[in-house]
Specification:
- This protein is mainly α.
- Helix content is 58%, strand content 6%.
- A 3-stranded antiparallel beta sheet has the order 4-3-6. A two-stranded antiparallel sheet has the order 1-2.
- Strand 8 and strand 9 form a beta hairpin.
- Helix 1 runs parallel beside helix 9, helix 3 runs antiparallel to helix 5 and helix 7 packs antiparallel against helix 8.
- The longest helix is centred in the middle third of the chain and has 48 residues.
- It is elongated.
- The C terminus is likely disordered.
Length: 464
């Protein structure tokens, strides 16, 4: 077992305190975002993200404790302050953290089923129990098994599956003679309980992302080919044809946004676990340990919750930047926490389905908002919500500085306001993305919606 200088020991011990806190904050904010919204709690995507964030919050807390739970007086470790019991508790919950990468794989599988195989939300809800049961059962079972086998001991960075004393061979590598006080054959259990499933999750996530990307590319090629042929043949001459073309263009934008969001979640997953994976790979093949890799492992392994939060808020950040190009990157990110950056519009549609106007959110009366609630429940607006719809919302929102937002047209007596979440009123239905994550302003499942209310599509036209 390698020995480290005092400075190296301090770095290995102190860095997890900072990155563990960052991860707890990120995971905690995701948990708050999902729990505060009843509509999000009804969606499979958000429930998967919620469960993954809860698991990561728990594990990040024990990473944050770093070397403190290690038994006092342990050599080659900075600031050990615990006992065997505290070390065992930390090791138990860090082993339970295998649920987080398994949830990453479940999320990648979710994207694959929704985008490539066009599963509806109703069908995903039937399969959801399997996406939750595998991570939770494996994490619980292996943690309890490690506890029963006395495998949870000092592992230098924190307590986890390790032997006492460190460096003992164990019965498997010592001709059947156990020379360890605790943690016999810990190397086998590390691979069986943690790194084997971790690498399987990395492989499955990568394959799922590749298949998802291929599906998006095929859709893009088919749409581009059709568009080039139809453009050369004729130009749309009526409103229905124009809206069909606009819907297809909207689908292509959604496809890019969804695949990009899935890719960034995968990159956050890979980024967190690459140093640990390389460290174990080198230890297994060459039986060597390199301090720079160990330090990177101590920094980035506890950090996934924070990276997940950055990905979760990425669509909103992009929308803020497009809405306010004068803002810097840091200011746009700060506005996420303040909830600023957008004036959520109210789209008012007349009973005849024309004469539209956009009013700033908040200037409608309470009676109007109550009326809009009843109409909004019959909408079938499909978008990708947190998976990138805000980026598209901003692209589709008109930016005409000459339009007075306070001036409405048509007969006020006949108008009934429709508060549309995405600010454009585009009704997108029939594409492969219509079932990904319905717009949160839609209050019914798509099976229960019989008709759509005509609303403005952001180009001065009526989308039915």
């Amino acid at each position: 077992m390698p020995t480290y200088t005092d400075i190296q020991q301090i770095h290995l011990s102190v860095w997890p305190h900072f990155t563990g806190v960052l991860s707890m904050i990120g995971s905690g904010l995701i948990i708050f975002e999902v729990l505060k919204d009843p509509k999000k709690r009804q969606r499979v995507y958000h429930r998967l993200l919620l469960a993954m964030s809860i698991c990561d919050f728990n594990t990040s807390f024990w990473y944050f404790l770093s070397t403190w739970p290690i038994p006092r007086g342990t050599a080659n470790v900075f600031a050990p302050s615990g006992t065997t019991a505290s070390c065992t508790a930390q090791g138990f919950f860090i082993q339970f953290g295998i649920a987080t990468p398994l949830y990453n794989a479940a999320l990648a599988l979710y994207y694959l089923l929704i985008i490539r195989y066009q599963w509806k939300e109703k069908r995903m809800k039937k399969a959801e129990k399997y996406l939750h049961s595998v991570p939770l059962l494996w994490a619980s079972g292996t943690s309890l098994a490690a506890l029963g086998l006395t495998l949870l001991n000092n592992a230098n960075l924190w307590c986890w599956i390790a032997s006492v004393p460190l460096g003992c061979k164990g019965s498997h590598r010592n001709n059947g003679v156990n020379d360890c006080e605790r943690g016999n054959n810990q190397n086998i259990y590390r691979w069986a309980f943690f790194y084997g499933p971790l690498w399987a999750a990395i492989f499955l996530s990568g394959v799922a992302m590749l298949l998802t990307y291929m599906a998006v590319v095929q859709t893009e090629k088919a749409s581009s080919k059709w568009k080039s042929v139809t453009t050369a043949t004729y130009e749309p001459t009526n409103s229905a044809q124009r809206k069909k073309r606009e819907k297809e263009e909207s689908d292509r934008k959604h496809s890019k946004q969804v695949s990009s969001q899935a890719l960034y979640y995968l990159l956050a997953f890979f980024f967190s676990w690459t140093p640990a994976t390389l460290t174990r790979f080198i230890q297994t093949i060459w039986s060597k340990t390199y301090y720079p890799l160990i330090l990177l492992m101590a920094i980035f392994t506890p950090m996934q919750g924070f990276l997940n939060y950055l990905v979760y808020m990425r669509p909103r950040w992009i929308s803020y930047r497009k809405r306010h190009p004068e803002w810097g990157r840091c200011k746009a990110f700060a506005m996420i926490f303040r909830g600023g950056g957008f004036d959520r519009p109210t789209v008012e549609a007349t009973a005849r389905g024309k004469n539209f106007s956009v009013l700033p959110y908040g200037r409608t009366s309470a009676a109007s908002r109550k009326s809009s609630f009843s109409i909004r429940s019959s909408l079938n607006v499909s978008s990708v919500a947190d998976l990138g719809s805000e980026e598209q919302k901003e692209e589709e929102r008109p930016h005409d500085d000459n339009v007075n937002p306070n001036v409405t047209s048509g007969d006020d007596e006949e108008e009934s306001p429709v508060d549309v979440e995405n600010g454009t009123g585009v009704v997108v239905k029939g594409s492969i993305f219509s079932s990904v994550i319905p717009e949160e302003s839609s209050l019914q499942d798509e099976d229960e919606v019989d008709e759509k209310v005509p609303v403005e599509n952001g180009h001065g036209e009526v989308a039915r």
